[in-house]
Amino acid sequence: MPTATSNEILPSAFYDRPALEVAHDLLGMRLVRLLGNNRLAGIIYEVEAYQGEEDLACHARVGKTARNAVMYGRPGLAYVYFTYGMHWCLNAVTGPGEIPSAVLIRGILPVEGLDIIAARRSGQPKSHWTDGPAKICAALGIDGQQNGADLCSTKDGLWVERGNPPPPETIQHGARIGIASVPEPWRSLPWRLWFTLPDQ
DNA sequence: TTTACGATCTAT
DNA sequence: TAGATCGTAAAT
Fold it and tell me: Which of A27, A80, A91, A112 could form a disulfide bond with A41, CB atoms 3.0-4.6 angstroms apart?
């Protein structure tokens, strides 16, 4: 049985692979945020892969700009972007190598710092605390200041620890969300991955 | 400088 | 099902 309490931080090499592979392997891992003296964490259960300038759903489709520059950086950095005039979303930059790719973190199951998360998501039921990319950032206090943060170290207060990979038969996949105006085949590629947690 | 729209969320 | 709300990239 894999241990559920390991504090091993995923290294840069973990992210230096195609985004779809990294997305798959991030399922079951633990996203950790240090906010003041409080440790907040959740198990990643839904992700999406965005791979390179050729992927017309990827922010890198327009080439390198000030906004997406972090995606051209080292695998294992956080790419945090602002959207719809009010929301922040968190990605993990992936490889391989220089290819501007990332994995959008779309859903986590809160497991540490529940009181803080509840306060940050006041008014919402627990089931909706972190079931969307912008909700995760609101719950964990992630915004533009974390853009470019090193997910492979604790120095920026945001990292990912090794957890328990889900049983392969529980993993599902489908089209990515919110890209209706993107042409095929990109719109329908099954690059959103998720798994159903035992308790839900 | 103006315009159109978005890897979303919430209340209705 | 529509409104919120503003940075970004492309058009003017």
Answer: A112
